[in-house]
Amino acid sequence: MSVGRKTKREKRSIGLGWRIVIGLIVGIILGVIFFKNKTAITAMQNIGTMFIGLIQMIVLPIVISSLTVGIAKMGDIRKLGRVGLKTLIYFEVLSTIAIILGMIAGNVFEPGANVNVHNLQATNISNYLSTAKSASDGGIWATIMDIVPTNFFASLSESNMLQVILFSVFFGLGTAAIGQKGQVIIDLFDAVAEVMFKVTNWVMQLAPIGVGALIGATVAQMGLKSLESLGYFIFVSYLTMIFFMVVILGIVLKIYNVRVFTLFKVLRDEIILAFTTASSEATLPRIVSKMEKFGVSQGIVSFVVPTGYTFNLDGSAIYQAIGALFMAQAYNIHLSLVQQLTLLVVLMITSKGMAGVPGASFVVLLATVSSIGVPPSGLAFIAGVDRLIDMGRTAVNVVGNSTASIVIGKSEKDFDEEKNMKYLASFND
C-alpha cells in the first residue's frame, strides 16, 4: 500500500521540466527588476556558475566509468574501429548539412540586409580575438595532435574531453584483453557510474535555481531592448535551428524507425536545461543515462555522445553560417556563388580545427569572416546577443548528439528494441 501511495504522490508532484520552466520565468522577471544592478547580476552569476560547476564535477567521472565499461563489454577492437569511423563520417555529413542549411537561410531571409552596423552597439571581443589567433596558428593538425594525452591526470585537471575519451577507450580495451581478471575493474567502474548518476539526480534538483540565476543575469545585463536591432537575426537563427531538428533530424530518425517528436518527449527536460543554461555539459550525464534506457548500448552511447559534443555541434554550425552571411549583408558585401562555396569549405575546416576551444562558435566566426572581407571587429556588433543564440544552438546540439547515438546504435544492430518499448511505455503511464 505504501508503494501505491508513493506513486500517487510522485504523480502529483511537479516534474523537473516544469520546475525548470518556472525557474526560467522567475529568472526573466528578476532580470527585468534588477536591470543593470551590478550587485544582483554578480549574485545571480555566482549562483549560476556554482550550479554549472556541480555539473562539470560529475561529467568526467561518468564519461570515464561508462566509456571504460562499455568498451570493455564491447571487447572487439575491429568493431570499435568501425564504430569510430562511422561516427566521424556521420558527424561530418550532418555538420556539413547544418552549414549548408544555415547558408540557405541566410540567403533566403537576408537577416543583415536592412541592418546599419553603425546603429548597433559594439561589445568587447578582445578575449575572443586572442583565442581565435592562437587557435588559428595551431590549425587542425594541432587539434589532432592534442587528442593524444601525455599525462592522463593533466587531461583530467584541464577537462580535455578528447584526451579523456582516448585514454578511456584504451583502458577499456585493455580491461577486455585480460579476460576474467578485468571483471573487478568492470564491476568497480559500473558501481562508479551508478553512484555518479545518483549524484546527477541530486544535483538536478537544483536546476531550477541555477537556470533562474543564469537567465536572470543575462537579462539583467542585456535588457530586453537589446533585442530590437538584432531581433530578426535571432528569429532567423532560431527558425533555421527548429527546421533542422524537426525536418533534417526527423528524416534521419525516420530512416531508423524513430519519430523525432518521440525523442523530443524523452529529452524534454534536457532540451529545456540545455536551452536555459547554454551549457552542453549540463545535459551530458543525463543524455548518456537516457540514451542507454532508450535502448542504445552503453559502449556506443558512452563513445558517441561525449565525442559529439566536440565534433557534432549542429546548432553551432547553423549559427556560424548565418552569422557570417549576416555580417556580409550588414557591410553590403555581395558574395558570389564561388565565394559562398569557399565560405562553406572554410567553415567545415575551422569548425573542426577549433573543436574544444572555449567559445568555439564565436571563435570560428572570427576566423572565418575575414575570408569574405568582413572585418573581425564587426562581430563585436552581434557578440551582445551571442548568449541568446547560444541557448538555442546548445539545445540543437543535445538533440543532434542523441540522434547520433541512436543512428550508430541501430546501424550496428546494437539497439535493444524491447528495452526501448518498455522505456517509452513509462512516459505514457
TrEMBL record:
TM ranges: 16-35, 47-67, 88-109, 161-179, 199-220, 232-256, 330-350, 362-383
Compartments, as annotated in UniProt: Cell membrane
Transmembrane in keyword set: yes
InterPro entries cross-referenced by the UniProt entry: Na-dicarboxylate_symporter, Na:dicarbo_symporter_sf
Protein name, per record: Proton/glutamate symport protein / Sodium/glutamate symport protein
GO-annotated cellular components: plasma membrane
Family matches, as Pfam families: SDF (PF00375)
GO molecular function: symporter activity
Biological process (GO), any one: dicarboxylic acid transport
Keywords (A to Z) from UniProt: Cell membrane, Membrane, Symport, Transmembrane, Transmembrane helix, Transport
UniProt cross-references to SUPFAM superfamilies, sorted A to Z: Proton glutamate symport protein
Keyword Methyltransferase carried by entry: no
Organism: Weissella jogaejeotgali
Entry membrane topology: Multi-pass membrane protein
